[in-house]
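User: Just a sanity check before I run the rest of the batch. Below are the structure tokens for the first item. I only need the designed sequence back.
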């Protein structure tokens, strides 16, 4: 790969896909939860508006308590979902980067040893077994 060439979006996806694909169910669950959290964020102010309407204008306590109970349940669910979403997000990012670190470490193990005293800096290019067409260059300074 020449220094002037850059990864396109498609190249980036092809390079990262071996690391992302094992976690596709987790990513799907994360985005479904994120969508649910967004719906709840839109729904809760509407429910609070209905509660105010019932207590101020209609003066109907039974409907107020029904809507208030639903709003309370949705608020608690939103808090639990928020915690779960970010726990899921951190799990995905840790495991995703961990897989990349393992691939780099395995590549280091396969390299031939060099006398580093004779080099001020060096760089090497490696290709993963699952993506041999997309090299990664790492430069090290001694």
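Assistant: Here's the designed sequence for the first item:
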């Amino acid at each position: 790969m020449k220094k002037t060439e850059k990864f396109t979006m498609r190249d980036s996806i092809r390079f990262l896909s071996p690391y992302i694909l094992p976690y596709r169910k987790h990513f799907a669950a994360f985005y479904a939860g994120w969508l649910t959290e967004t719906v709840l964020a839109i729904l809760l102010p509407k429910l609070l508006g209905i509660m105010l309407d019932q207590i101020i204008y209609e003066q109907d306590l039974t409907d107020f308590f029904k809507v208030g109970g639903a709003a309370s349940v949705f608020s608690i669910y939103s808090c639990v979902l928020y915690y779960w979403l970010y726990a899921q997000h951190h799990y995905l990012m840790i495991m995703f980067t961990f897989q990349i670190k393992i691939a780099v470490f395995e590549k280091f193990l396969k390299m031939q040893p060099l006398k580093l005293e004779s080099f001020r800096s060096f760089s090497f290019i490696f290709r993963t077994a699952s993506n041999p067409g997309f090299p990664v260059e790492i430069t090290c300074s001694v």
